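Please, why this fold?
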Amino acid sequence: MRETEQVDSLSAIAEAEAQRARARAKPAVATVRVSPGPYLALAGVVTFCSALLLRADHDAWALILIASAWLLIPLFAFFDRIAFDGSSLRRQGPITSVLRLFRIYPNHLDVADFETVETSAVRTLRRGGSVRYRYRTEINGKGKQFVIASGGRNYRRVVRELFPLIHEDKLDNRSRDLRDYLNEPGSLNRKTKLSQLAPEHVLDLAKSDFRVGGKGTDRPDTLLNEVSAEDVERAHLLRRLGNELRVSGRLREAGEAFRRALNVTPRRAWLIYDFARLLRSQASAHSDARLLSRARAALRLACTRAGNDLVLLPLIGECLLECGDARQARLVLEKTVDIDRDNYKARLCLADLALREGKLAHVIHHYHEAARVSSEQALARYARREADYYIRLNNDEEYLATELRRINWLQTITRVRRLAARVTSAAILVALAGAYVDITMASVGWSIACSSLIAWILTLVGTRMLFERSKPRSIA
């Protein structure tokens, strides 16, 4: 009888595992290739090794390595993808399948288990009033991490399919912008033509000194109320178009769309907030401190117009932190908490502010409050984990010293890695040029390049090892 029960229980476990495997094998709704950066770095290292072998007259091995570097590695990079099946993310590809057997890569991560979604933007090209953005989105949860990088239609499809399913409090400002305003270039061009915006070359010659709060906002409320419903709807469409243009990097055209919308509805808090985001993007693209100051002023005005909007106020506080105005950000976030003590996003931003000021007790308090007020299990788990970490830092001086030492080592190794990469590139150029000038110069160049490349690889490994937080020692 007992053996029959054991067989039945094992059968039930096997069936449950088979069901989970079938759930994980659902067809992908959208896929995107992983960032090719690591593969390009590996191809560069292999190419350098093949050059050394060629210099040492090992032509056959050099040919094998160079073929592997520029035939096999790009092929592996092409098939290495992150897939979204409607409920979870998973990484798939030939190398990933092999490494997953050794638990090197995460298997999958459900949308409900996402803890943070953070997007960073890098300017790759600037032309006139437009810039080309490359977005990098990092998704964390349950100790797993997925990174997706923009680069075409597949990324936009993943954003459209995945981001609307993620809880609002898990998204940062840029991720929220991508969710709401990322659009196909063709559709955006059609919208721009229908809105009859001036061509980009005309806007480049026009002055961009439009200010929020000028004469247009001094009209009495009776006149503002006389704006027709059609004009209000047009202002709403212009605001959306301006945000879509901003996300795509067409900043000058976005400014024109916002200018027209603000001429119709100059007191709308959300419109002023979006215009402030545009000013911040322009300030970053042109390294203009004056535009950054105007962005801060627009955010303060948006806070005044927002009243008790508990959705907008935390976003304003987060954007003020991005602009470097910590004092005003604190005022906005404290106002939000005074209105609603259960605002998770405001609590997290206040914890970030307290951490910048070195107030660990305040950090712990805000994370504990965030864990208490969150209805999402993943968000509460994240806040509790952060609170426990800072409690250990606050109560254990030895652990605090260990973490400070780890962070100092991490910063030092990062600087050394960047220096080693630059020295390697310079030494390779010296070695190649020295072959036509002096053989001794070429030998010195190759020697320096080898040493700096080895240092770069070691520091890369060290960075990965030091990136994880130290584990506290158990008390016997």
User: Anything to note?
Assistant: The chain has a mean pLDDT of 85. Residues 231 and 442 are 70 Å apart (CA to CA). The first strand starts at residue 30 and ends at 33. Strands lie at 30-33, 81-84, 88-92, 108-110, 116-127, 130-141, 144-149.
